[in-house]
Amino acid sequence: MSLETVTEHERILQEIESTDTACVGPTLRSVYDDQPNAHKRFMEKLDARIRNHDREIEKMCNFHHQGFVDAITELLKVRADAEKLMGFTLFDLPLCKVTAQTEEVIRCRIQQRNMATTVEKLHKPVSHVILFLFRYYSALKTMEQLENIYIPRVSQYRFCQIMAETLPKLREEIKEISMSDLKDFLESIRKHSDKIGETAMRQLCQTSVWSERPNTPPSQRPEHRVTWARKCFFNLVGFLFKVLTAQDLVDFSPVYRCLHIYTVLGDRETFENYYRKQRKKQARLVLQPQSNMHETVEGYRKYFNQIVGFFVVEDHILHATQGLVTRAFTDELWNMALSKIIAVLRTHSSYCSDPDLVLELKNLIVIFADTLQGYGFPVNRLFDLLFEVRDQYNETLLKKWALVFRDIFEQDNYSPIPVENEEEYKAVVSRFPFHDAEIEKVGINKIFMFYYHHDNFFLFSTEIDDMLRKSTNLLLTRTLSSCLQNLIKKPHIGLTELVQIIINTTHLEYACKYLEDFITNITNVSPETVHTTRLYGLSTFKDARHAAEGEIYTKLNQKIDEFIQLADYEWGMAESDGRASGYLMDLINFLRSTSQVFTHLPGKVAQTACMSACKHLATSLMQMLLDTELKQISMGAIQQFNLDVIQCELFASSEPVPGFQGDTLQLAFIDLRQLLDLFMVWDWSTYLADYGQPTSKYLRVNPSTALALLEKMKDTSKKNNIFSQFRKNDRDKQKLIETVVKQLRSLVNGMSQHS
C-alpha cells in the first residue's frame, strides 16, 4: 500500500470520527471511487480502528466503574448535608468546609461527565456498525447481547432504560435499510435481466456440449430435471470454458442479507411473501412484449433474453437459499409464463410475412427452450410450438415464392432464348439441365424453347427429409401450380404465349429428377426408401401443361369464331362469283401461321390442336347453314359456300402439322362435304335409295339436316320464281323438291319413332 493511500485512509477515518453521521456518505463514496481493491484495505483499517476504540471504551468503563459506584454513594450522602446548607449562606461556613465542599462538587461534576461519556461510548458501537459498516447481522447480535446479558445487569440506571427503548427502533431501522437494499436489487435485476439471459443463451450456443443438438426432433427430447451429476458436469464445463453464471453477473448479497435479518427477527414469512409477490409482478412485466416485437429478430431476442434472465435468477435463488422460493413456486411461475409465451409467439408470428424472420424466430425458440431446459424447466410445449412455427414458415415461404413466380411470369416475354455462339449456349445450359444431342451435333445457332428456371425451390435444413419433401410438394402443387393456372387464364396470354408455356412446363417436368437429386444430397435419404414421400413435380407440370393445352383449344376456337362473325354471305345470290370468301381466306391464313407455331409443341398436342380447330370450323360452318334465323338459301349461295369448304379441305390436305395419316384431318369436313355434294349434284335418288346402308355415298348426311336445308331452298324457289309454274322444268323441279321433302320427313319421323 502506498504512503499516499495510507495517509488518505487516515484522513477519512479522522473525518468519520469527527463528522456528523448524516454527512458521512460522500466521505465513504470517495473510498469506492479510489483504486480497485482500495475499499478492502480501508475496511481492514477501519476494523482495526474500531477494535482500538472498543478496547479504549472497555478500559475506560473498567477504570471508572468503581468511581462511578462510589460517586453515586457519596451523592446520596451529600444529599442530606445539602439540605442543611440551604438554611445558611456560604459565608457562614468556615473556609475549610467551603473548600472541602467545592472539591466535592468538582468531583461530582467529573463523575457526571464520565457517566455521559460512558453512555455515549456504550451507544457508539451499535450505531457505528449500523450506519457505516452495513454489518446488520453483527449489529443484531450485539443488540441481542446488550438486551439479554448486559443491560439487565445495570437495568436500574436510566441510561440503560433509554438504550433498551432504542433497540427496537434500531431493529426496525435495520429492517427498513435491508428492505430498501432488496428493492434496489429487484429493480437492478429487472433492468439487467436481458443481459443475464443474453449471456446464458450465448453460452448455450458457444458450448456445444451443453445440451442436445437443436435439430433433434422434439419427440426425442425427454422432459427432465437437472440432476446432481449434470450440475457437476455443468460446473466442470464452466471451469474449463470460464462460463459466467448468474452469481458472476449479479450481486445477490442484498437478498441473502435481508433474508437473514428477517429470519433473525422472526419475520421470515413476511419477507418470503413480499419477495414472491414482487417477483410475480416482475414476471408479468417481463412477459409483456413490445407491440412491434414481430418486426425484427432483435425484438424477439430481447423478449427471450429477459425471460431467460428472470428464470436464471429464480433458479439461483431456489438453490442458494433455503425456502425463500420453492420448486412449486418456480413451477407455478414457469407454467404461467409458458402459457403467456406461447400465446404471444402465436400472435406475433402470425403478423410476420418474412420467412427469413420466421426462421430466425424458430432458431431463437430452440436456443431459448434448450437454455431453460438446462436449468430444469419443462419445455415440451415449446417444442410442440415449433411445429406451428414451421407451418408458419412454410406459409410465409410459399407466399414469398408466389410473388417470385408471379414476377417471373410477368417479366417473361414468352419467346425462345436466342443463342448465337457456343459461349452463350454453355451459359444457358449451366443454369438449366438441358442437353440436346442434335444441337450439339449440328451447331449452336439454334433456339432454346424454354425460359424460366428456379434452382432452389425450398431449403429448410433443420427439418427431416419427409418434412422437406412435403413442403416442396406444397410449393409445387399449391403455389407454383396456382400461379401457372392463373397465368394461363389471363386474357393477354395468346396462342403463341400458351405454346411457349407448354414448352417451358415440358422442360421443367424433365428437370424434376434434378430437384429430387438436390433434396437427396441435402438429406442423404434415398428416394428409393420405402416410406420416402414422392415429389409431385411431374404431376404439377403435367396438369399445367394440360390446362395450357385446353386453353389453346379454347382460344383457337374463339379466334375462329371471330372470323366466322365476319362472314357476310348473300344467301339469295343467283350464282357464285367463282372465288372463296375473303373472311375465310383470312381465317385459313391465320390457321396456317398458327400451325407453324404448333410445330414446336409435342406432336400429339399439335395434332390435337389442329384437329380441334378443323372440327370447330366445320361445326361453325354447318351451324351457319342450318341457322333457324336463315329462312332462304339459293343454289348460288350453296355454290359459294362450297367454294369456301373446298378451301378448308385444301388446308386440311396440306398437312399443316406433321403426323396425320392419310386424309385424317380432311375427315373433319366430311359431313359438310357430303351434304354439299348432295345438293350440288342433286342426287336425291341415290341418297334415298342407299340411306341406312354402310356403303352409302352420303352416309354422313342426316335426314333432318338435309330436310332443313332443302326447305330453305324450297322457299327461295317460290319467292324468286314467280313464273316458274309456267315453265315445265321448274314445275318438275318444284314437284321433285316437294316429293323429296315428304320422303325426308318420313325418314325423320321414322327415326324419332324408333328412338
TrEMBL record:
Keyword vocabulary terms for this entry: Exocytosis, Transport
Pfam families named in the record: EXOC6_Sec15_N (PF20651), Sec15_C (PF04091)
Residue ranges of every copy of the Exocyst complex component EXOC6/Sec15 N-terminal domain listed in the record: 45-201
Keyword Transmembrane: no
Record bears the keyword Transport: yes
Organism superkingdom: Eukaryota
GO biological process: Golgi to plasma membrane transport; intracellular protein transport; vesicle tethering involved in exocytosis
Domain Exocyst complex subunit EXOC6/Sec15 C-terminal: 444-712
InterPro entries: EXOC6/Sec15, EXOC6/Sec15_C, EXOC6/Sec15_C_dom1, EXOC6_Sec15_N, EXOC6PINT-1/Sec15/Tip20_C_dom2
Signal sequence segment: none
GO cellular component terms, A-Z: exocyst; membrane
Function: Component of the exocyst complex involved in the docking of exocytic vesicles with fusion sites on the plasma membrane.
Record family assignment: Belongs to the SEC15 family.
Identification of the protein by name: Exocyst complex component
UniProt source species: Cyprinus carpio
